[in-house]
Amino acid sequence: MPTTEPSSRVTTVPAAPAPPTAPPTAPPTAPPHAPPPAPPPAATRRALLALGVPVYLELLSGVVTGLIDTLWLSRVGEAAVGAVAVATTVENVLLGVILTANIGATVLIADATGGGRRGELPVIMRAVGILWLAIAPVVAIGGFLCREEVASLLAGPDGDVHRLAVRFLAVSFPGIAVFFAQNVVDGILKGTGDTRTPMRMAILANVLVLVLDPLLIYGPGPLPRLGVAGAALGMVIGRAVALAVSLVLLRRKRLGRPLDDLPPAGRSPGPTGRYATPADDLRWSTALRRLLGTGLPAAGDFVLRMGVAATLVGLVARFGEDQLAAYGIDVKVILFATMACYAVRQAAGILLARARGAGQRAAGVIGRQSVLLGTAVGAGGGLAFALAGPLLLHGFTDAPGVLAAGRTLLWFLLPYLALLGGTVGLSGVFVGGGRSGAMFCVTLLGAAVQLPLAYGLSTVPALGVQGVWLSMSAGTGLQFLLGWALFRRTES
């Protein structure tokens, strides 16, 4: 049989299909509407200091104004110094009235600026102007007409202090319109993140007061001798010049005119050719309601704290002139620390309002850093005052009883200042976050505990006036705990 050779054909096995090629992976990107990340703690502290240091110097300048008047009028007589003290007390109370516009403007403008909603700025500024116009004339005219009654309430119905206080208030009450206007302009500038211009304007006003006071009080050469009225007039003129400069600088920022020449993405020009801006959705009445909603509770917080301090004066007065004098001196001394605490508060409010407008969840980090910074400032200042107590007090008096009482009080004020720094620093987060009403309630609860406690502890024979000092730390400590608990709850 013939044999056959095997076939030479090669059988090919089909190759397996290649696995599908995965598309190249792009680096992960955040969703288009994801909020920007919160800033790190170190950057937050630097931002708080950058905003807060000029605010601190501005606040101290306000204290210096009263000291300048006191310095020049001390040569006129004790009654003149007492008249300035009365007028300063009146102005401190009235400051709480205009803080509604000041704080409200700062928070709303910072929020709009942080969110890039420049078109809202003219509307907010118009609402602030309307609020000033509603407040300033009423206070200025009403105070002028009732100046004698106001002086009687604080200085008694008769005497040289009453007479000179009436003369001072006759000038300072009409000038309160300038004081209020400067506060409003300062609030607008701070809302843009500019805390240096208000500082410079406060220093300018003080320099002018320092120069004008001796000229108007003593009347050298052809100038009339105006006495206490001259001190009031110098203060008003200095503030008026600073206000004029502030208005020029504010106008240069062009906040009152939206950027209509830049067409926003996705928008078409309207019938007038102007591009629509976010301001088209914000009415001045809405902005005014927001101003009141933010500013009124914050102003109420300030007035409430002033009221508590005034009530404590009445309690301390029961223990004699030495204790009362020591309290008055120490309260002036610790202003250098308390003003720093309030500077932290303003800085925290501005920083959070801007972050909130940008959609940034930064309340947690700003809150913690403001508490840390405020507590450090308060505790550091309190310790410095306690250690340097004898030297500080000798600058005010040589009375042995006042010196002994003042040294003791400064040590009691150390924990109070530490707690106050943390509480006030934290309150800036509530203001900047649009929840100033919550912090007002915390302050109200603390005052409701502190005042009865001050009276009760002061009646304990072993404590006496030291019961009042203990109540200050107890009431402020309660405010800190309540504020921190509320902060942690809302943060989570």
Description:
There is one protein chain. With 492 residues, the chain is mainly alpha-helical. The protein is built from 16 helices and no strands. The protein has helices at 41-73, 78-114, 121-145, 147-155, 160-172, 176-191, 196-218, 228-253, 284-317, 321-333, 335-357, 363-387, 389-394, 400-432, 436-458, 466-491. Helix 1 packs antiparallel against helix 2 (78-114), helix 2 runs antiparallel to helix 9 (284-317) and helix 12 runs antiparallel to helix 14 (400-432). The longest helix is centred in the first third of the chain and has 37 residues, at 78-114. The protein starts with 40 loop residues before the first helix and ends with a helix. The model is unreliable at 1-16, 25-32 and 258-280 (pLDDT under 50).
Short description:
The protein is mainly α. It is 74% helix and 0% strand. Helix 1 (41-73) packs across helix 11 (335-357) and helix 11 (335-357) packs parallel to helix 14 (400-432).
